[in-house]
Amino acid sequence: MKQTSTRSPTEGDAVPVPRQKRGPLGQSAGVSTLQRQQMHYGMLFVLPGLLVYLVFMAYPFLSTIYLSFTSWNGVAPTKEWVGLTNYARMFTDGVALKAFLNNVIWVVIGTIAPVVFGLFEALLVWSSPRGSLVFRTLFFLPFVLPLVVVGIVWQWIYHPLFGSLNKLLDGVGLEGLSRGWLADPHAALYAVLIAAIWTATGFCFLILHAALQNVDASTVEAAMIDGAGWFRRAWSVVIPQIAPQLTMVTAVTLIGGFAVFDIVFVMTGGGPGVASEVLATYTYKTAFQQNEAGYGSALAMLITLLSLVSAVAFIRLRERER
Amino acid sequence: MRRVIRPVSRKEFLRLGGAGLAGAALLGVAGCGGNEGAQGGEVVRFFTAAQETAAQERVMQDLVARFEEKNPNITLEREAVPTEDQRTVIQTRLQSGNPPDVFSYDTGPGFGGVLADAGLLRPLEDAYKQNDWGIYDWAKQRATYGGKVYGVPENVEEVIVFYNKDLVPEVPQTVDELRQIADELKGQGITPFAFGDQEQWPAGHLFSIGVSNMLGREGLENILFGEGRWDTPEVVRAIELFFRDFVESEYYPEGVNAITYDDANALFYSGRAGMLPTGTWVVPTIVETVQDFEVGFFPFPSIDGSSISPPAGVGSGLFVAKNAQNSEGALKFIDYLQSEDAARFLIEKFSVIPAHPVNTEGLDVPELSKQVLDDLSRSPQAETFGYNVDVLTSENFNEVMNSGFQEVIGGSRSPEEQAAALQDAWASSREG
Predict the structure, then answer these.
(1) Cβ within 8 Å, pair A75-B115
(2) N or C: less crowded end of chain B, CB within 10 Å?
(3) A180/B contact by beta carbon, under 8 A
(4) Statement: residue A313 has pLDDT above 80
């Protein structure tokens, strides 16, 4: 039977000291029974989330790393180890290179544009409260729509036969500009990008609009009294106060830029040819349509690496500035 | 009074966790189901692609009901997913411990062939012998991988040109005659060909038409099954005609690379396009959708004096999963589909042409279906037919083929470059 040491409350003790269990060597465990029991509770509550994380995040992630070193076709019972072959292949694969360049274009334009537009919209709504509810709803709405829906809607706008964009151009006498937007190898990527910017702007607007509520109004008033114009006030007074949120939306949009898939897949499928192919659509095609799960996994690891490196680099840069 | 949270002891914690796990395991077991039906009979699970329209879905359900009527102790659970999801779902399901018993899938080497190589399919040599299935030999070959037959071809298809009889006065025999018709239609503000290539695979069918005519059956066989090459003047001509000439002549809708297969078909169904080059699988949809004009069809005419060899071959086939829980039931279902009763029902309702001989006397089918049936009943073994390329080639080759045609259409790749790319892809897929 285990020994438990009890200490009778001395006269000076105002609060009864909880009974402490001794460890196997007789020393005090250092953690009270209550704390230990609460730890059990804690574990019980964490367990479901942890299991979900392990099964659906950690395990697939580790499996993907493993698969990227094999030539597995997605169904065969054997997975042949090929070392770094899949990674070496990326450097000679023209489509992968094209997809990577498209991703770079996407990340640059697709990060800067929504953050700038979102910030501008947020500042507008913040600085003139009239009709703010209407504009808030209007600006935020695109973000509420699932990307697949956004893709389909814009596909209709761009449709070469009955799209409203071409109708509009024809209507104002710019027939020369109307074209099959998603069919033109030079226009397809940018056409999809515009749709993506439209929806990402809603997200940037939401976060930055919320951040603006914490800006100290007296500093803005002081700047105004000092004669600073609208742009000057925004640049020198307001933006420094919402810098952390600005960094956050930029980082989130940036990471999303390397992993973009759904909207491209729905609108062009990477076409025409490979004109709007991005790494994620190419990964999908390789792994699931061309039965090259090994190479597809290596491409997926490339996306992960690019997202990670760019996000970390960006956040470091921001921190150094501050 | 102070409320004290009752701490959970280690024992209780384990007990709770254990109960949870046991519950989850029970649910899992319940989910696996076994193969016992609700009324105590057996269950056969059939996995397939969903039909194009709600009416066609209902017909499929009728077919299931007919099977169950003939086999009262079997419940057929039909699971249908959109065609584009079929591949990923079936690959995952077959590798899980709970595959469907029987499923319908493409018979090409990139589809059924890959599954057979991975050992996920049950060989059907014995089943063919025991049940005496009369599948055409050439069709059986399409579902034979590594010398063993794994699939039962469901139907035979042909890629042809459907036309609106109000808009196209007579069937052209040569491409020049076809051009005349197309130019006249263009003059009337009607799109000559309903062709959309956003999905990329529709171009593969036009290419199949082109090379089948230019090379003839034998010439194409020489490439597909022999030592022939893709980078020849005939192949370049086929690519040029469909993806350069016809684009520049504005025979297709504007922005053809951004128009979906369904959009293009809709142009034809609504009378805004005169001709629709595609496969006989759209016949049931045409019969159901087109009410305002009559539809006929012709094989694509002779190109520069070439033969006329419309591509034809096997569509999908039925396969039995290696780990099927009820493979006997699966074979019973396949056997039923070979019966006169099922075949006639499918011909009447779907205008599909079974891959085995059927007595077509007294069949009640629409005019268009009858014509297609007559045309395809000349067995596609006949010399006149060509091949649909993409069901006979690897997925890597198909990717180069289909994305490359989009580039030729878009003007960023020449027909010669595309033919060379095809040859490269062909050589490397053969090495692999």
Answers:
(1) yes
(2) N
(3) yes
(4) yes
Same domain, residue pair B341 and B203: no
Residues B398 and B367 grouped into a single domain:
no
Query: Does B95 contact chain A (CB < 8 Å)?
Result: yes
Domain that holds residue B142: 42-155+314-371
- Same domain, residue pair B192 and B223: yes
A239 touches chain B (CB under 8 A): no
CATH number at residue B201: 3.40.190.10
CB contact under 8 A, A273 and B403: yes
Q: Best residue in A265, A291, A292, A295 to probe B by mutation, most B CBs within 10 Å? A: A291
Tell which residue, B138, B143, B88, has the closest CA to residue B121: B143
Q: Which of A290, A292, A295 to probe the B interface (max B CBs under 10 A)?
A: A290
Residue B8, C-beta contacts closer than 8 angstroms, at least 6 positions apart = A37, A40, A41, A44, B16
- Return the pLDDT at B40: 58
Predicted confidence (pLDDT) at residue A21 exceeds the cutoff of 50 = no
Residues B293 and B189 both lie in one domain: yes
A233 lies in some domain: yes
B253 CB within 8 Å of a chain A CB: yes
Give pLDDT tens digits for A92-139: 999 999 999 999 999 999 999 999 999 999 998 888 778 888 888 888
Contacts of B185 (CB under 8 A, 6+ apart): B167, B168, B191, B192, B274
- Cβ count near A33 (within 10 Å): 13
Torsion, CA B43, CA B49, CA B54, CA B56, rounded to 10: -80
Domain count of chain A? 1
Q: Which residue has the higher pLDDT, B319 or A10?
A: B319
- Please report, rounded to a whole number, the percentage of residues in chain B having pLDDT higher than 90: 57
- Chain A with chain B: Cβ pairs closer than 8 A: 124
Choice among A106-110, A244-248, B379-383 with the minimum mean pLDDT: B379-383
CA distance B143 to chain A (A): 18
pLDDT in tens, B157-190: 899 999 999 999 899 999 999 999 999 999 999 9
Same domain, B122 and B177: no
pLDDT digits (tens, 9 = 90+) for A202-227: 999 999 999 999 898 899 889 989 98
Q: Which residues of A touch B117 (CB under 8 A)?
A: 75-76
Q: Domain holding A190: CATH number? A: 1.10.3720.10
* Whether residues B286 and B392 fall in one domain: yes
The distance of A197 to chain B (nearest Cα, Å) reads 21
Cβ(A84)–Cβ(A69) under 8 Å? yes
- Chain A residues with CB-CB distance to B17 below 8 A: 44, 47
Q: Is position A20 within any domain?
A: no
Domain annotation covers residue A282: yes
Task: Classify residue B299: in a domain, yes or no.
Answer: yes
- C-alpha torsion sign, points B113, B136, B370, B311: positive
Amino acid found at A217? A
Residue A118, helix vs strand vs coil: helix
- Residues B84 and B228 placed together within one structural domain of the fold: no
Peptide bond into A48 cis (omega under 30): no
**CB contacts, 8 Å: B255 with chain A:** 159-161, 179-184
DSSP state of B85: G
3-state secondary structure of B253: coil
How many domains would you assign to chain B?
Answer: 2
Domain that holds residue A161: 85-321
